[in-house]
Amino acid sequence: MTEEDDSGIELGEGEPVEGAPLARVSARLMWGIEKSTVVDREGETPIRTPDGPRPLADILDDVDRTYFDTRQTFHEAVEPAVGTGPVPTTADDEATAGSEE
Fold it and tell me: Element (H or E) spanning 48, and its range?
């Protein structure tokens, strides 16, 4: 059985991924919004990144914009700070840990 995340993407039955997708967090906000308000409301939320989950507040430290007029503007500003690439799963972490010995 598969499930669907908030973006409508069908998820497989693999290991869970830590953190929330950026799209899920941005869907909870009203636009336009100041960066400081995003930090106040969602700053502690861990966001999925290729390097593992990171708090949104830490990611926003790398973003120069102070105001996001639309959800798209937010994504365009934040996605470069999040990075691209596969997001590690718990199984990925366990496989990596075993190879370090």
Answer: none
Contact 56, 21 (CB under 8 A): no
SS3 of 57, please? helix
Q: What's the distance, CA 41 to chain centroid?
A: 15
Give the residue from 93, 79, 73 showing the smallest Cα distance to 48: 79
The type of residue at 23 is A
Per-residue model confidence (pLDDT) at position 60: 98
pLDDT by residue (tens digit) across 40-58? 999 999 999 999 999 999 9
Q: Are 47 and 53 a contacting pair, CB within 8 Å?
A: yes
